């Protein structure tokens, strides 16, 4: 699905003519460096030595390590509370209310407040600060690193809970159960002994892990919808009502003071009409202008809209669908329902709670696309791990030897626990993961990112754009030089001469006037001709590169199809 979605995204980028956007068109406004000549595209480009960025990258690595330590500590605290509530309340049927209260309210609030939002906000602020210190030349590079740092939190936060329970807690309990150990002797740092009895075996914790995953997915969907679409709208409505109430009281006070001033002036014998006639006040604005001004002022104090939270949800829940479907088959259905509700409430959120969006063309979703690809690939290890370590699904491969009379029964099955040995489940994990990885690599290899038709479309667009640039430069240069050889900034049609061409043509001193046919006029035209020749060479080089790319792409595509 991801491969075909990527192909569709590139097809839309070609059809909408945004596939040629690059770093030069979007320079980072916070960049601190100098400009150097660009020998490939012409003009100048921002530049900073790569060595000067090493201290900033080391600082980023240190900050990310600190944030990961904080995240692990918070996850460990929530996990310890989860173990404590099961050991404290799930052994007695009379304490079911306390169990559900701590499990679905207290533990969920700890995760949402401390990790899902608290740590996420802190991590985002630190990631933005570190990326800004790295001093990237273009906004695309800045977004690439910032998205990578934020996605690291999304991935660790989204799966660390399951990694602790599924790959640490359950194997630990199963190991103690197999070796006749006492779980009450296990000491948790900061909390001491959390296991009260040995009554809860590995199957019990597997079932609780599954129910916790279902609850986590449900709570995450609801909490994300409320935090992103409901809370901002309610906050803005509350602030607006408070703002209007305070300004209404201020206007009433001003009106009362104005009436008092009129009464005082009438008492002193001053004619109000004469006073108004002497005042040269401007006419009040029309209703349309007044409404536009009020809307502009009203939107000025709103937050600037960002798509980061939407991409956050997309990356998180695509990974959930690819990973947790093996535990809860309704994961994809619930995400589909939540996304449709959020899609329809986004319109209200954007129009009422955020500043009006400024549309900007882009070649795709940027650095979030490789993040989604990594999430899909990493889900292979997680799925196989949950199916073999955290659940009993992998035992289906050993059902042939489940009967005690089978000669291989003692080799695979542990009679004390009634389940397959952990070593063989790990062997299934490694084998299964490698097979899925090979299948994914084959899909990436045999499904090209662009079809032959899309390659042809891109090739024709590049040739058409290069030819159009050449014609525009020649036409503008001819219009700028004119019949007298004197350069003009605009052609009769209104097209503006490019900066480089205008600089080449107007290389002579502007204060000196030369007659027609003089050497300076000839040198100006010659400089413009040199620029035209340079533009022709650049366009020819673009077309040649496009021809080679198109030829290689078509041959590669046909070879894969054959």
The number of distinct helices, counting runs of at least 4 residues, comes to 15
Low-confidence stretches: 259-284, 483-527
What's the order of the H and E elements? Answer: HEEHHHHHHHHHHEEHHHH
**Cross-sheet strand order for the largest sheet:** 1-2
The secondary-structure class comes to: mainly alpha
Q: What is the total tally of β strands? A: 4
Mean pLDDT equals 74
* General shape: globular
Task: List the quaternary state of the chains.
Answer: single chain
Major sheet: 2 strands, antiparallel
Query: Percent of residues in helical segments?
Result: 55-70%
Protein architecture, described:
The structure is a single chain. The chain is mainly α and 562 residues long. It contains 15 helices and 4 strands. The chain has helices at residues 2-15, 54-89, 96-133, 139-178, 202-267, 272-278, 287-300, 308-324, 331-353, 368-390, 409-412, 422-446, 452-481, 499-505, 519-561; strands at 34-37, 44-47, 413-414, 419-420. A hairpin with a 6-residue loop joins strand 1 (34-37) and strand 2 (44-47). Mean pLDDT is 74; it is low at 259-284 and 483-527.
Compose a concise summary of this entry.
The chain is mainly alpha-helical and 562 residues long.
């Amino acid at each position: 699905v991801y491969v075909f979605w990527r192909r569709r995204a590139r097809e839309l980028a070609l059809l909408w003519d945004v596939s040629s956007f690059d770093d030069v068109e979007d320079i980072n406004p916070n960049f601190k460096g100098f400009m150097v000549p660009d020998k490939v595209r012409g003009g100048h480009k921002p530049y900073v030595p790569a060595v000067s960025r090493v201290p900033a990258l080391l600082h980023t690595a240190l900050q990310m390590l600190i944030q990961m330590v904080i995240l692990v500590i918070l996850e460990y605290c929530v996990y310890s509370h989860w173990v404590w509530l099961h050991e404290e309340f799930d052994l007695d049927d009379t304490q079911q209310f306390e169990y559900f209260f701590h499990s679905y309210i207290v533990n969920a609030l700890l995760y949402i407040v401390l990790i899902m939002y608290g740590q996420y906000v802190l991590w985002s602020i630190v990631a933005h600060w570190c990326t800004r210190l790295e001093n990237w030349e273009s906004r695309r590079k800045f977004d690439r690193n910032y998205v990578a740092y934020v996605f690291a939190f999304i991935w660790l936060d989204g799966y660390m809970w399951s990694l602790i329970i599924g790959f640490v807690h359950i194997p630990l309990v199963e190991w103690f159960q197999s070796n006749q150990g006492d779980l009450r002797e296990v000491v948790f740092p900061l909390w001491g002994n959390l296991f009260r009895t040995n009554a809860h075996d590995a199957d019990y914790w597997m079932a609780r892990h599954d129910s916790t995953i279902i609850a986590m997915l449900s709570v995450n969907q609801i909490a994300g919808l409320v935090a992103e679409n409901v809370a901002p709208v309610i906050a803005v409505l509350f602030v607006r009502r408070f703002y209007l109430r305070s300004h209404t009281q201020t206007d009433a006070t001003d009106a009362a003071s104005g009436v008092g001033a009129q009464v005082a002036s009438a008492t002193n014998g001053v004619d109000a009409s004469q006073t108004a006639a002497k005042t040269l006040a401007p006419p009040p604005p029309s209703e349309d202008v007044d409404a536009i001004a009020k809307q502009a002022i009203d939107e000025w104090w709103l937050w600037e809209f960002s798509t980061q939270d939407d991409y956050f949800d997309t990356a998180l829940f695509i990974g959930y669908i690819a990973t947790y479907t093996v535990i809860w088959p309704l994961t994809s259905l619930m995400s589909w329902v939540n996304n449709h509700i959020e899609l329809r409430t986004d319109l209200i959120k954007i129009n009422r709670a955020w500043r009006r969006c400024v549309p900007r063309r882009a070649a795709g979703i940027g650095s979030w696309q490789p993040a989604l690809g990594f999430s899909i690939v990493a889900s292979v290890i997680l799925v196989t791990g949950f199916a073999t370590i955290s659940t009993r699904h992998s035992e289906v491969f050993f059902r042939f030897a489940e009967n005690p009379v089978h000669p291989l029964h003692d080799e695979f099955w542990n009679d004390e626990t009634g389940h397959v040995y952990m070593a063989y489940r790990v062997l299934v994990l490694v084998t299964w993961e490698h097979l899925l990885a090979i299948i994914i690599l084959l899909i990436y290899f045999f499904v090209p990112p662009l079809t032959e038709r899309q390659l042809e479309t891109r090739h024709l667009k590049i040739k058409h754009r290069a030819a159009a640039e050449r014609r525009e430069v020649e036409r503008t240069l001819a219009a700028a030089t004119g019949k007298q050889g004197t350069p003009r900034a605009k052609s009769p049609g209104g097209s503006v001469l490019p900066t480089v061409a205008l600089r080449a043509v107007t290389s002579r001193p502007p204060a000196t006037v030369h007659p027609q046919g003089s050497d300076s006029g000839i040198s100006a035209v010659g400089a413009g001709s040199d620029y035209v020749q340079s533009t022709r060479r650049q366009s020819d080089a673009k077309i040649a590169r496009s021809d080679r790319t198109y030829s290689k792409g078509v041959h590669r595509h046909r070879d894969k199809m054959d």
